Amino acid sequence: MNMKLTEKQEDMFETISDFNMEARYGDYKYTFELKCTDEYTNTWIKNIKELRKWLKELLIEK
Questions:
Q1: Which of residues 29 and 49 earns the better pLDDT score?
Q2: Per-residue pLDDT at 42
Q3: How many other CB atoms sit within 10 Å of the CB of residue 18?
Q4: 28-42: buried (b, 16+ CB within 10 Å) or exposed (e) per residue?
Q5: Percent of the chain with pLDDT over 90
Q6: Element (H, E) at 28
Q7: CA distance 18 to 25
């Protein structure tokens, strides 16, 4: 499957990948927890749902 990502999508996927690292390791985890305000969390939940919808649409098209 040939996926064309926009720059925004690339940035979002990169940030989401960083979440794994930040939530997993000591100092990163503490810093990540400080960053996760309600607003930040709600924004990223919305972004992730948007990406998920886009990915599902790609799979349906195939």
A1: 49
A2: 97
A3: 12
A4: eeeebeeeeeeeeee
A5: 48
A6: helix 26-35
A7: 11
CA distance 22 to 57: 29
Compute the distance between CA of residue 31 and CA of residue 17 in angstroms, rounded to an integer: 16
* Nearest alpha-carbon partner for 20 in 32, 4, 35: 32
Structure tokens at 34: 């400080």
Distance CA 14, CA 12 (A): 5
Cα–Cα distance measured from residue 26 to residue 3, given in angstroms and rounded to the nearest whole number: 34
pLDDT reading at 21 higher than 90: no
- Domains of the chain: which residue ranges? 7-61
Range 47-58 average pLDDT: 94
